[in-house]
Structure formats: structure tokens, C-alpha cells
Amino acid sequence: MPSSPRSQFVIKGGQVVDASGSRRADVRVRDGMIVDVAADMTTSEDEATVDASGCVVSPGLVDLHVHLREPGDEEAETVETGTRAAARGGFTAVVAMPNTRPPLDDAAVVSSVLAAGAATGLCEVVSSGCITVGRDGRELAPMGELHALGVRIFTDDGACVAHAGMMRRALEYAASLPGAIVAEHAEDDTLAAGGHMHEGAWSSRLGIPGRPSVAETVIVARDIELCAVTGTPVHFLHCSAAGTVDLVRAAKARGLPVTAEVAPHHFTLTDACCEGFDPAFKVHPPLRTDADIAALRVGLADGTIDAIATDHAPHTPESKEHPFEEAPPGMLGLETALALTLTELVEPGIVDLADALALLSWKPAAIAGLEHQGCDVAPGAVANLAVIDPAMAWQVDARRLASRARNTPFAGRTLTGKVRHTIFRGELVVVDGEATK
Amino acid sequence: MKHLLSIDDLDRASLTALLDLSEQFVAVNQREIPKVPALRGKVVASLFYEESTRTRLSFETAAKRLSCDVMTFSVAQSSVKKGESLRDTVQTIAAMGIDAVVVRHPAAGAPYRIADWIDGSVVNAGDGRHAHPTQALLDALTLRRRREIAGLHVAIVGDVRHSRVARSNVKALHLLGADVTLVGPPTLLPESLEGWPVQVSHELDDVVSEVDVVMLLRMQFERQQEGLFPTLREYTARYGLTEARAERLKPDALVMHPGPMNRGVEVAAEVADGRASLVTEQVTNGVAVRMAVLYSLLGSGAPVA
């Protein structure tokens, strides 16, 4: 623990990994900035050190997909508890999804979320904005007003833009807003509505109505064509189906500005998890099959998938204390995403550590257009950093999560790799795994 | 056995033992006073989140004939709308002191969740599209009283996709050695039949003369609105057990229906009331089977008096 003020310290003994490569280096942080990066730095008597021996020092992680539940569902999560969970997960920026109550379709609501984020000081809270008013797909939200507040990611997440014509208009309009991207929750409601898990062998056996993979792929195919017509970048949220990976790969080969994210639960869990009817495993889009996991992993490895994003979706314990079909969809993700990536992708050799960090940090930072996130660890950069112990094994304990909710599907699971320290704008917000505020 | 949630809880031996025990209760039910003190002092709660007069009455009759005290909860969906979780509801009921809960719920798996939350036994009286194990048991008992089940060819006809009765019957009949053919249009069969020990036919005419048993499923009229089949007339034409079709059945073939029947839709009235029909026996045997289930879960294991 540093004894001097948290504003000045040296991260010692770690392996720095960023987009420019990997090297042994210590990192001096002062007044919010990285001021020096060099091997075996000598520190003065009064200079605090942060131990990073055996650890990886990475640009802070960036999560493109987080439900902070504020305003409207503060009993499940608040901006404060959500950003604390984010910091403990190594994230220095999160994109707040718009399905709050009221939704993020209005400048006042967006401003309140941004203000709440700034007040916590635990990580950067980036607000998304709705594509349509009330996320109901009928009228465009005031995208220009939201853009003026800094919104770059427009999405009706939780809902798909059902109407192809409306999606086209949104993409056309967004083309006039510099840096704007449109992010789709790709599930055709006419195919998925009334479903609660992946449609397949397990749903048929369990008698639970299904949400088929084709509900996702028809929208992905549609939106790729709309992207081609309009030229506006389209981002696919929480891709879950093997067919989506093929469609996105082909779109990229055509040179289209298409990006895609995958959530850790979709590359680790299958629909077989629903066998016991536990709503902890209920999520939209649903957990799919081993074949889908295999395809997502190939997509993560070959660059088709650009980012790992959590779709962190807190729900109160009582809201999950219903039958599977009646419980809300969604699961926590912020505090397990890195460990799942290391355990399930890096350890088996599917991606190397640098590629994993690219998926969790600098590539999503680029998609969101975040100037001070995912930057190389070099003098002059804002000090947004994660110090990661890649070898530490730990057991997920739902009661010990910083999130206000407890709905992790990974409770009891032993994972390898843990965030040791998180530095946000030069401040140690997590030390030895615990939030400092 | 603590709970009966699905036919999956049984193997061939325990299923057969349950049917054997059911026979004893069939005998009890034929007595002048069809009541035994076997479960005196035990409290059974019936918790129905979905209307079902038949199944509820059958269970409550079974419990009363075993001398149980029966508490009936008709849980309107309003308790869900009021925000009370299923867990709170069942723990409140459990706190009154009960030995078993008989649950009917529109959502698959609800009895599994309840079994995790309370100390008593849970009997699944039908959960969503998932399972209806006592229906499968009473169907097996009814069939077994007429024919040796092993080797029988059973057609289950109609809306298998949405049917808990079909799901449980496929398992029970397979355990007992029958061959099962599911008959219906692709839109009314499960999306995936991976792992199901069944054959499939899309035309009842193709199998009607070969099968030993025809189990008809109730056709819910709203399935037509959902676009799962064109018209009731077409459904009856392809999948209804009409009189003409019934004439093509083997001479000793049997006809079953879990009820309530849509006469003239999935089964002609004349066939439902005809010589081959086991429909009334199914209802009668339902009480005996449910007595056997409750006795197995709550009884001392002593022979039935």
C-alpha cells in the first residue's frame, strides 16, 4: 500500500502489455498521468510503490455493454455500485446501456447518468443513447442533442430495431453525427418473442419456449445490408450464434464498417445449463450450443469479433426467485469477465494474452471513440490502467461481489486470473482486489 | 423418493413399483368405503397457479382417501402482479406446516424451484410444457390393465410441442418398453427431437392401421391464431381420429385422451365413447395413481391396509 498521496506512485515489477507490445517496465504515475515508463526504475524514499510483481500492467479495460440500472432500478444496481464492480473487474470505462426507466432517449436523463458517473470517480461512465424514443422503434430519439453531450453509441439495447425502414433512417441520420455508431440488439421479435432460452434440443426437452439462432442472424444479415447502403458503422451487441460470426466475417471482407462484441457467458456456457430451471442462466440472447461457442471462439481468435463486452445485467434476488419463464433475463459480468477470458480463452491457447487484452481494452475503446482509454502505456497518457495477476486462482462468491445484485451464473466456479489493482485517471481505485472507495 | 417432479425421477423398476402400488389403491377405491388411514395427520397443500378442476379434484380426492388434511390454494396470477415472488408464496404456505405440495404452474420447472425452497415433498401436477408425471403414470396404469405395455406401438397425435402430457408419456412409455410414434405437422412437433426415443409421422393415415394405441392430445384453438396450422377443419382432416379413420384401427387397438376433449376436432364423439376408448378409465385410475404417489412420498412404507 502506498503511504503517500494516491496521486503519485510507481507501479513496480510488472510486465507492461499494450497495443505496441509487451515489455518488463515500471510505470510512474503523477497527477493523473503516466509520466515515465522504464525498466527497473529507481524510486525515491518518499515515493509510493504499487507492487506488480508477477502481474501484467495493461491499459484499463473498456466494457461496451453495461446495464447500470440508474435511473429506475436502483434496487438492482446504481451507477456507484456498478462502477465499483467495474473497477474491481479492471475496467476504467463502461458504456451504460439505455434501457433505464426513463430510458436514455433524452438529454436530461443522459446528463444525469453522466453526472452520477463523474461523481463516483471509480471509472469513466460513457452514456449510450437510444435510437428511438422509448426504445419502441417508432420515432427517432434526439440523436443530435445526445451527440452534443458526447454520446457516440446509439442503441435500443434490450430491444431490436424491429422495422427495417426505421433502422435505415437511423443509420442515415447518424451519418451526419461525427463518430456515431449504431449498435443493434439483434433479435427478431417475431421469431424470438415468447421464448426464454435457446431453441434447440434442450428447449424441446425442457418444454421451455425457445429463441432461435435465426432470430439473431436475420437481423444481422439485414443490418449488414443497411450498413452497406448507408455507410454508417454498425456494431452488433452480444453476438451469440455461429451464423452471426460468418455474416460478420463476410461483411468485414466486403470492407464494411461493421464491428461485433461477444459476452463471456456466450463463449463459456451452453443451453444445457438451463436443465435445472435456474433463472441465473436466463439471458437474451440466450446461451446456445457447443457449436456456437466453438464458432464464437474462432471469431474471437481470427479478429472477426472486435470486443469482449459483459452485458452486465443486474437483477435483484427476488426478481430471479420466479420460475425460469417468468424471471427477467440477464446476468452479472463485470467482475468475472477478465478471469473468464483468461481461463477460457488464454489458458487453452485460443487467443494470446495481448489479443485478449485487445478485445477487452483498446479495441472496444476504439469502437466507442474513447480518447483516453486503451491507450499505450507511455508518458503523456492518462493513467487508466489495470494490474492483473494472470496466475491467481480464485472462486467466484456471489456474496462478495461489489455489484448490488447477486445474479452471477458463475457462483462457485474457480477461475484463474484476477485484477489486483485498478488505476483510474491516476488514482488507485482498486488495491489488492478491493475498491478504495 | 422425496419428490415426483418428472418421469426422469423414476427408473423402470420404481415406475413399475408405483404402478403395482396403484393397483392396490384401485382395489381400495372399489370398497364400499374407499378410504384408508394411511396418511392420517399428514397435510397436503394443493397449489394451482393454473386452472385445472380435473387434476386438482383428482389429487384432492386421492389425498382425502388417504386421510390427509388437504389445504387448497388457488393462487391467482395477481400474486405475481403484486410483486410477490414464487419463493415468498411457497415459503409462506410451507410455514403453515405441510408435508407435501401438489403444484400446477404455467411455467416449466416451477416445481423444481419450489423443491429447492421448501422442506416438504413436491408433486408436479403439470408445469408449463414440461412435465405431467401423474398423467403419464395413470395412462400407463390404464394401458397396463388392458395390455402388456412392452412391445406396444403407441401413436401420440397432435400438439406435442406444447404438451407436457406428451413429454411425460414418451418417457414413461419408453421406460416400459413401448415404441412411440409422434404424429403431427412439423409446427406442432418439438423443434428438436434430438435424444427422443420416438419415430415421427406427419400423416395419421400412414400409421393408424399399424398402431396398438392412439393417444390424442387436446388441440388448443389459439394455436391456429399463432399460425401453427391453417384451420381446424384441415387439422381434423389430417390428424383427427374420425370414425372413418377409426375403422382402420387394429381390432384390439385402444384410444386414449387426457381430457378435456374437443369432440369433433381431435376425436369424433362416437370414437371417444366407443368400445376402444379408455377415457373414463383414465380418469378413474388417476385417483389411484395419485394415492400411490402421495403414499410413496409420505407413507411409512408399510403395506396398505
Summarize the structure.
The complex is a heterodimer of chains A (437) and B (305). Chain A has eleven helices and 21 strands. Chain A has 437 residues and is of the alpha/beta class.
Helix-strand blueprint:
The complex is a heterodimer of chains A (437) and B (305).
Chain A: E1 8-12, E2 15-18, E3 21-24, E4 26-30, E5 33-38, E6 48-51, E7 56-59, E8 61-66, H1 79-88, E9 91-96, H2 107-120, E10 124-127, H3 143-148, E11 153-155, H4 164-174, E12 181-184, H5 189-192, E13 197-198, H6 201-206, E14 210-211, H7 213-230, E15 234-236, H8 242-253, E16 258-262, H9 290-302, E17 307-308, H10 337-346, H11 353-368, E18 385-395, E19 414-424, E20 427-431, E21 434-435
Parallel strand pairs in A: 1-6, 2-7, 8-9, 9-10, 11-12, 12-15, 13-14, 15-16, 16-17
Antiparallel strand pairs in A: 1-4, 2-3, 4-5, 7-18, 18-19, 19-20, 20-21
Helix pairs in contact in A: 1-2, 4-7, 7-8, 8-9
Chain B: H1 12-29, E1 43-48, H2 53-65, E2 69-74, H3 78-81, H4 86-94, E3 100-105, H5 110-117, E4 121-127, H6 133-144, E5 153-157, H7 164-175, E6 179-183, E7 198-201, H8 204-207, E8 213-216, H9 222-225, H10 232-239, H11 243-246, E9 254-256, H12 269-272, H13 279-298
Parallel strand pairs in B: 1-2, 1-3, 3-4, 5-6, 5-8, 6-7, 8-9
